[in-house]
Amino acid sequence: MDCLRFQDPAELSTRPVSKADLNSRQMEKQPILFFDGVCGLCNRTVDFVLQEDRDRRFLFAPLQGETFKAFVKDHPELSTVDSAFVLSYTAQGEQLLMRSDAIFYILGQLPQFRWIAQIGHFIPRPIRDSVYRLIASTRYRAWGKRDSCRLPTLEEEQRFLP
């Protein structure tokens, strides 16, 4: 997988844990889909995941938001990322999924589309990522660019990070 691993900060904590901390940590364990908030294709992808993610597994954060800015402070190597990626959690810590690995991870978490992810992993990563880069490089021309980030509805609000 095309990913970077980071140690889970929750494992380092030794202070007492409050109920609010537990809720916060539980939310942090959900995979976060970081997306370009002004990209038409990225916003359509978010809409698709919101519709198909009936188990409400994913949280969402725009690359233009405070969550991403805080994340980049700890991981400056990601400051040049300009398209969607997924931060998931494993027993080993944080797992950052980029390009086609992120897309197939998302599809793999959506029961009706899991089969696409399974087939997609048979395609060699260099080919998958080349297609991803081609689409990413033309996404503004093909799907448009917004002047501002997507605003979640009241129903969606709890799944969006600032």
Q: Would you kindly provide a written description of the structure presented here, covering whatever features stand out?
A:
The protein is of the alpha+beta class. It has one domain (3-159). The chain has six helices and five strands; from the N terminus they run βαβαβαββααα. The chain has a five-stranded mixed β-sheet, with helices on both faces. Helix 4 runs antiparallel to helix 5. Residues 1-23 have low confidence and may be disordered.
Features:
162 residues; alpha+beta; five-stranded mixed beta sheet; 6 helices; 5 strands; 43% helix; 15% strand; globular; disordered N terminus
According to DSSP, the number of beta strands is 5
Shape: globular
Total of domains:
1
Q: Largest sheet, order of strands side by side?
A: 1-5-4-2-3
Gyration radius over CA: 16 Å
Q: What is the percent of helical residues?
A: 40-55%
Order of helices and strands: EHEHEHEEHHH
Output the number of helix runs.
6
The main pleated sheet reads as: 5 strands, mixed
Fraction in beta strands = 5-15%
**Subunit arrangement of the protein:** single chain
Content-based structural category:
alpha+beta
| Poorly predicted sequence stretches spanning 5 or more consecutive residues | 1-23
Overall mean confidence score, pLDDT: 82
Terminal CA distance: 28 Å
